[in-house]
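Q: For a teaching handout, I want to show students what a protein-ligand complex looks like in token form. Below are the inputs, and the small molecule is cobalamin. Please produce the holo structure.
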Amino acid sequence: MLINPKVPVYLRMPSMPLGLVSIASYLNRHGHRAIIIERSVKAYDLRAELKRFQPDVIGISVMSFLSGIDAKKLTQRLRRFTGVPIIWGGQAPSALPEMSLRDGGPDYVMLGEGELTWQAVADALARGEPLDGIPGLAYLRKNAFVSNSIPPVADLFQFPEMDWTLVEPKKYFSTFFHCGKMLYLHASKGCPAACIFCSNKQYHQSCNRCRDPRHVLDDIDRYVKDYGADGIYFSDELFCPRRDLRTQLCEGLIERNYPLVWGCQMRLGVLNEADVRLMARAGCRWILFGIESGSKERIASIKKKINLELAYQTIEWCEKAGITVQASFIIGFPGETREELRKTVDFAKSLPSSLVALNILTPIPNSEIWDLWDSDYPQYKKPADIRACAYKVEQNVGDLVPWNFSRVPMRELRVIHFYYQWVDFSKRDSVNQDFYGVFKKMAQDAFSRVFRHGLSGFVFGAYVSVKQFVTVFFYSHFFPGILKKYGLRR
Ligand code: B12
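A: Here is the structure, written as tokens, with cobalamin included.
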């Protein structure tokens, strides 16, 4: 039994639990029976479900520490009803397995990708063998932390297409650029880069792998034909960098000619002009480029390995082809000065992209910056439990990052960050050609909260939305002097 925990009330709409669907689809094709209990969209009587399904093992997806909060409660409750092993998996517990075991209380944490390790676990249980020796598992024995070796990342071609009947896809529809029924899907995983602010290097072993484009197209066929999806956001950190496979995928989409738009995340240097045109013909309408800094020295020191000179032209190709570009930057890097920040702001301003985001650095567990935290920034206490990781590290719109590793005063970072958030917020809907879009989205969110979380959830959610709005408005409008200093206002 694979469980997706509830997402906190202030997160936007829940989204397709791709990891769980992938694991369950794989297990069901390899001699086992897996079901998904989706707490983020539906209320379940867990006790009745346990009685009905009689699982041999329970898995809980902990994609972020925000879902870790419900996962912890759930683990405690399940313990009262059943004695079967409880395994946590996903990016968050893989990054901090010992903390997850001690604070969250599962029997095991499964490190890295789940499909093949789950198969080994399910086979061992079927044979009545112990789980402790299985590579990819971490656990506590006599209060000591044990971590088995992590298997190499898998070749994604071996995984079948996704079985969407395991969940109810229509429950995950969300509004995005030019679409109202957008769903997530992955076409590839991982990224070859090893940026010091990202956990990808450790989690995906700096390795990019693409899925078989035929499987991806099958998944899309069923999204569109069986459920009526009109948009797809490829969740890949770097969308299908292999040109041959990406071209196959795009040509498949052009052939199908669905009323479907899609978008993805990209690195500078992967696409040429012909690629961009092909993607646009295949329905691509938005791309996020992680550029991170306007300073070449910083690009080198964070190991981003991109050529900033390519930014202007690549973005121009995209915008000309009808693809909305969001150029994403990080501000507040360790030791960053006002001069460096000004360079980034100037660079961001010079780009022809429709949207720009300047987010304040927050160290992610399992990144190089996270590992340097204790030695380099002893003035800030490192989050040491699930709650602290959720509320201090995994920031949401309107949250105030509590630490500043740069030499720029925090207020200046916040003013610039929220200024761009305000501009982005008001521009997003002009991109959609929908003047009232922002208000419509807020109203939709409010209603969906009433259905998902009841009246108290709605009241709390509304409070969080108002607080977010006030924070963004306050920082973006009440510090004209700071905006002027960075050339953002005359
Ligand atoms: C797409 C995405 C989203 C989508 C959701 C898509 C979805 N529901 O799956 C949206 C935009 C909604 C989202 C939201 C958030 N996300 Co997000 N997201 C991603 C992203 C880019 C891809 C995830 C994905 O779908 N991959 C494809 C699937 C097939 O792979 P997978 O999820 O990794 O699943 C595999 C393994 O993790 C494992 N596994 C997964 N579940 C389980 C369960 C068990 C029991 C086991 C054993 C194994 C296992 O096996 C799976 C199959 O191989 C990742 C980064 C990344 N590249 O992984 C960040 C990432 C997971 N998100 C992150 C964060 C912080 C968030 C938010 C908190 C952001 C915010 N402030 O709002 C929220 C929290 C949402 C939540 N429910 O908890 C962080 C987590 C950091 C951490 N270490 O804790 C990541 C790593 C990005 C980052 N580097 O910052 N996210």
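A: Two things your students might notice: The chain has two domains: 2-147, 173-408. The domain at 2-147 is CATH 3.40.50.280 (Rossmann fold).
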